[in-house]
Amino acid sequence: MKKQSIIWTVVGIVLIAIIIIIVKSYQNYEKGPASGNTETAANSSASVSPVENSKLSSSLSQFKNSELGFSVSYPSDWQTESAPSGVTFMIPNQFPQTTIGTLDASIQVLSGNCAFPPVVTIKDKGTMNVGSLTLNTISIQNSVEGRNYFDQLYSLQKGNVCYMFTFVSVTINPTTKGFSTSDVSKINANSQSHINDANVAFKAVVSSFAFVTPPVGQPETSYHPTATSTK
User: Fold this and answer.
1) pTM of the full predicted structure?
2) Nearest 5°: CA angle at 195, between 179 and 175?
3) Is the predicted pLDDT of residue 143 greater than 90, yes or no?
4) Can you state the percent helix, strand and coil of the chain, rounding each to 5?
């Protein structure tokens, strides 16, 4: 008898636990997804907002390299990475709902004649004047294996030195990042809007280009060491 009492007690506890779990599950279902689940919110159709306004920084910083012989102004929220041959700008993605994989720009100083890379699809080409300087420009657009590539290039020849300005963007198919098919047009619009704004900002960077005078070293023949005496 005692054993049966214990068994019925255990069964009662289990039933109560099951009822509590069912009630809580129903309450959560009625409330909908938790507000902290950002991944679910990002991928749901209701949370995908249409094209937003650009939030690129309006304040400017200056990059100057006397050895390479140039200076430019660029948005202050862009990160820079200097190298012996130039500088790369990492452009922040201000929109959370995009499929932008790469978004950066660079200025490279190369020896020899300027030459754009051979490409399959040329969107457009022409020239752009920056003060008294004339730059050649070309736009490249391609799609390969679900990735969309857009490059905007400018080149400036000065003697046997080439200044090459390159803007690069890569986007991927929204469905590969978990967005629903119904959201594809909105996500693509957000991505394209940000790429266009960043491209316009980089054009302004190129337009601010100016030559600077490199540091002048002391001729070796004019160097006269001072004699020192030892005691």
Assistant:
1) 0.69
2) 15
3) no
4) 30, 35, 35
- 């922040």: which residue's tokens? 92
Nearest of 121, 139, 122 to residue 203 by alpha carbon: 139
Give residue-wise pLDDT tens across range 197-219.
Answer: 999 999 999 999 999 986 665 55
Encoded tokens for 95? 């929109």
Instruction: Record the tokens describing residue 78, joined without a space.
Output: 């862009």
Residue 191 to residue 147: CA distance in whole angstroms:
13
Q: How far apart, in whole angstroms, are the C-alpha atoms of residue 83 and residue 5?
A: 80
Name the burial class of residue 124, with classes exposed (0-12), middle (13-18) and buried (19+) by CB atoms within 10 angstroms of its CB: exposed
Burial class (CB in 10 A: 0-12, 13-18, 19+), 69: middle
Strand (E) or helix (H) holding 5: helix 2-31
DSSP bridge pairs for 155: 136, 164
Q: Which two tokens stand for residue 47?
A: 């949370």
User: How far is residue 201's CA from residue 191's CA, in Å, rounded to a whole number?
Assistant: 15
222 and 85 in contact (C-beta within 8 Å)? no
